[in-house]
Amino acid sequence: MAERSRDGGRHDREQARRDREQARRDRDRLDQPRERGRRRTLRPRSGDTDRFGRFAESFARYMGTARFLIWMTMLILVWVVWNVPYGPERPRWDEYPFIFLTLMLSLQASYAAPLILLAQNRQEARDRVQQEQDRRADAQSHADMEFLAREVASLRLGLGEVATRDFLRSELRDLLESLQEQPDDGDDGSPEAGPDGRGRGRSGPRGH
Predict the structure, then answer these.
(1) What is d(CA 94, CA 73) in angstroms, rounded to the nearest whole number?
(2) 175-202, pLDDT tens digit by residue?
(3) In sequence order, what DSSP letters do the residues of 11-64 get, joined into one string?
(4) What does R_g of the chain's alpha carbons equal in angstroms?
(5) Beta-carbon contacts of residue 202 (< 8 Å; ≥ 6 apart)
(6) From CA 73, how far away is CA 81, in angstroms rounded?
């Protein structure tokens, strides 16, 4: 059993070694293009750029707070008071005229300005995207409003052609009045018949 396990492990190692050699030969072949993932480049990746951009935004946001100004002012005051040539003897690392402090502030300003500009550029990019989305939303809303206005106008035209209740009442009233004004079937202008079946003429002067 142990010999079988040792033989199996030896076989796996030999197979892995053959696979590595085959992969190296395939990589060194000149008639095959190289994989894009193996190409080395000095260009930063998109994920690293986005991460650095977020760091720049957080740094610029922190520099614009009162806490940063207070800590910066306290650091400069402590630096100046500790390194003045007056007072008791103590280890001073930047005596007057504070050249090292000036260098540190210059470095801070030289790094802070590009970080702030980078944060502003990212904010402008987001603002452009937001403005484009707002413009599309406004255009869609305008198109929807025009469509609704056309629909309302068509409904008004359709309702204008529909007979209303007052119109039907007036028409029925006119029809009833016209029927009442027509003469009866017996009133055709002929002399009215008498009881003896003879027509009763108009009463006129009797003859002597």
Answers:
(1) 17
(2) 888 888 876 555 554 444 444 444 444 4
(3) HHHHHHHHHHHHHHHHHH-SSSPPPGGG---SSPPHHHHHHHHHHHHHHHHHHT
(4) 53
(5) 191
(6) 12
